[in-house]
Amino acid sequence: MLTTRAPAKINLTLHILGRREDGYHALESLVAFTGGGDTLALAPGPALSLDISGPTAPAAGAGDDNLVLRAARNLAARVEGLTLGAFRLEKRLPVAAGIGGGSSDAAAALRLLARAHGLAADDSRLIDAACATGSDVSICLLARARMMRGAGEALGPPIRLPILPAVLVNPGVAVATAPVFAALGLAKGARSAGAAHPEIGDGASAEDLLVALAKGRNDLEDAACLQAPVIVDALALLRATRGCRLARMSGSGATCFALFATRQAAVRAARDIRAQCPQWWVKTAALR
Ligand SMILES: C[C@@](CO)(OP(=O)(O)O)[C@H](O)COP(=O)(O)OP(=O)(O)OC[C@H]1O[C@@H](n2ccc(N)nc2=O)[C@H](O)[C@@H]1O
Ligand SMILES: Nc1ncnc2c1ncn2[C@@H]1O[C@H](COP(=O)(O)OP(=O)(O)O)[C@@H](O)[C@H]1O
């Protein structure tokens, strides 16, 4: 049995540059990852199957359209004679939450199949299968902090970030990605205004990184807040916690994150938010 983790993806910034002729939005995003997340195991064998358990398994579903199965089929279509196998997914990340849980599961499936077959991490068939599965899947393959551009397929080199103590909050509403992009109202070929993405230095200090991140934004935040107004509350609660240096939504929402100077400050903030909103998903994380 082969196993791997599928961590959450956090868009520390998410700038929308315009809408391409293919309908997808051109973006620029500094992406980081948590530890933990979902766990995926593979027992290699001839038949493809998926067994799913864990607190958010019902929301993800074990059907044919599960991203684990889609990723496996996309790789099988590109690698002749690929042996698939039985996947077992322990699903803990909230679903339709802006943290790419499904994309990370798909990338984890590709990593396991690559391991089982001795495919290199930069094998173009692996990367093609990732892109065919979803815009966020290729960045989740390596799951290291880096810039993401294009519609998500153009990746910069890994960036060494200082470890960022964070709190992640999901207020319990599923937010589908496509309607949030659509609410931007950009026609095909349109470009959007907005200040350029801040320069992110490799190996920057936490202080320099926080200053740079503060100059960035998530351009999907307003559209997501209109669809799920509770996101406004989540952001306000995070911003009101002691020691919060920056609070922002990740991806198309509804998960929001706050960054702190120390792990203790993050732990205290998480405790305060849990006390106020016991139904919400609240996690501390070290982003990297
Ligand atoms: C917004 C982001 C930011 O990282 O994350 P999430 O909120 O999904 O986590 C991603 O761009 C989402 O990636 P992913 O969730 O893989 O998107 P896909 O399945 O490829 O696309 C779902 C839908 O979102 C829209 N879409 C997605 C990516 C993109 N660059 N432009 C788009 O317009 C399209 O309408 C597409 O049909
Ligand atoms: N393994 C999976 N985990 C989560 N969602 C999945 C999975 N497979 C398919 N999905 C579907 O993909 C959609 C996006 O889910 P997810 O990746 O959690 O969103 P987001 O990228 O916004 O966090 C959901 O509608 C969900 O039903």
In short:
With 288 residues, this protein is of the alpha+beta class. Helices cover 32% and strands 25% of the residues. The site of adenosine-5'-diphosphate (ADP) has 18 residues, from helix 2 and helix 3.
Kindly list the characteristics that best describe this protein.
288 residues, alpha+beta, Ribosomal Protein S5, domain 2, Alpha-Beta Plaits, four-stranded mixed β-sheet, globular, binds 4-diphosphocytidyl-2-C-methyl-D-erythritol 2-phosphate, binds adenosine-5'-diphosphate, GHMP_kinase_C_dom, kinase, IspE, Ribsml_uS5_D2-typ_fold_subgr, 4-(cytidine 5'-diphospho)-2-C-methyl-D-erythritol kinase activity
Description:
The longest helix is centred in the middle third of the chain and has 17 residues, at 101-117. The strands form 3 sheets. Strands 2, 3, 4, 8 and 9 form a 5-stranded antiparallel sheet that branches. The protein has 288 residues and is α+β, with helices and mostly antiparallel strands. It is built from 10 helices and 13 strands. It folds into 2 domains: 2-155, Ribosomal Protein S5, domain 2 (2-Layer Sandwich), CATH 3.30.230.10; 164-287, 2-Layer Sandwich (Alpha-Beta Plaits), CATH 3.30.70. Adenosine-5'-diphosphate (ADP) is lined by residues 60-61, 66-68, 95-103, 105, 177, 251-252. The site of adenosine-5'-diphosphate has 18 residues, from helix 2 and helix 3.
